[in-house]
């Protein structure tokens, strides 16, 4: 991970972890911290993580952010268009696929989102189910929980079609049709 912020604020902000070379001097009552950025680097630096992050950034740059965005929007459009044709499926949130960033949240009438996730899991399809750490939003939307499908540039049109095919069977598998 990383920490990004205004230098003057970071200089005033205390570190939340302590240890290693981030401490200049320590007593029983207080500590003096190293200058930025070392002030927030407690313990041993995660060198493998830094190398992995660099490789991931280069990979994304090579694919191209515009290509990723266009692919995500295209797949979200296909997914949402197909979901709107399915009985009992409700897309939560904005109905414009371009506003979803490849993430589509939904419910199925009469089926708990955890059941949706479990059923799709038996078909080797992963979705997230629950309140997504957003309980106030769920209350405002009038739902207890939702299922969420997330698309990215490594997903294909065929996978969207397979997802829609399996999603169309969930109500049947639950004995609702």
How would you portray this structure in words?
With 177 residues, the chain is of the alpha+beta class. It has two domains: 7-45, no CATH class; 65-173, Alpha-Beta Complex (Aspartate Aminotransferase, domain 1), CATH 3.90.1150. The protein has seven helices and six strands. The chain has helices spanning 7-12, 47-63, 65-83, 113-122, 135-141, 157-167, 170-173; strands spanning 23-26, 31-33, 89-92, 103-108, 128-130, 146-150. The strands form two sheets. The chain has a four-stranded antiparallel β-sheet with strand order 3-4-6-5, covered by helices on one side. Helix 3 runs parallel beside helix 6. It is elongated and about 70 Å long. The N and C termini lie far apart (47 Å).
Question: What features would you highlight for this structure?
Answer:
two-stranded antiparallel ribbon; 2 domains; 177 residues; elongated; Aspartate Aminotransferase, domain 1; alpha+beta; four-stranded antiparallel beta sheet
Number of strands: 6
CATH class division of the largest domain? Alpha Beta
Helix/strand/pairing category: alpha+beta
Query: How much is the average pLDDT?
Result: 93
Helix amount: 40-55%
Please, what is the CATH homologous superfamily of the largest domain?
Aspartate Aminotransferase, domain 1
Contiguous helical run count: 7
> Low-confidence spans: pLDDT under 50, at least 5 residues?
none
Strand order of the largest sheet: 3-4-6-5
Radius of gyration over C-alpha positions, nearest whole angstrom:
23 Å
Shape: elongated
Largest sheet, in brief, is: 4 strands, antiparallel
Distance between the termini: 47 Å
CATH topology of the largest domain: Aspartate Aminotransferase, domain 1
**Any idea how many domains?**
2
Element order: H for helix, E for strand = HEEHHEEHEHEHH
Strand content: 5-15%
Oligomer: single chain
């Amino acid at each position: 991970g990383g920490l990004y912020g205004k230098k003057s604020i970071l200089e005033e902000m205390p570190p939340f972890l302590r240890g290693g070379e981030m401490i200049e001097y320590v007593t029983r009552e207080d500590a003096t911290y190293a200058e930025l950025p070392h002030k927030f680097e407690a313990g041993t630096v995660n060198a493998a993580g830094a190398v992995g992050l660099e490789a991931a950034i280069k990979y994304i740059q090579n694919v191209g952010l515009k290509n990723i965005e266009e692919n995500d929007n295209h797949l979200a459009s296909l997914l949402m268009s197909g979901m709107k044709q399915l009985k009992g499926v409700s897309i939560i949130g904005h109905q414009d696929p371009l506003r979803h960033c490849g993430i589509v949240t939904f419910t199925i009438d009469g089926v708990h989102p955890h059941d949706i996730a479990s059923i799709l899991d038996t078909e080797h399809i992963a979705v997230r189910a629950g309140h997504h750490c957003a309980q106030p939003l769920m209350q405002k939307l009038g739902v207890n929980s939702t299922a969420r499908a997330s698309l990215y540039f490594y997903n294909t049109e065929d996978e969207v079609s397979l997802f829609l095919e399996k999603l169309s069977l969930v109500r049947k598998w639950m004995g609702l049709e």
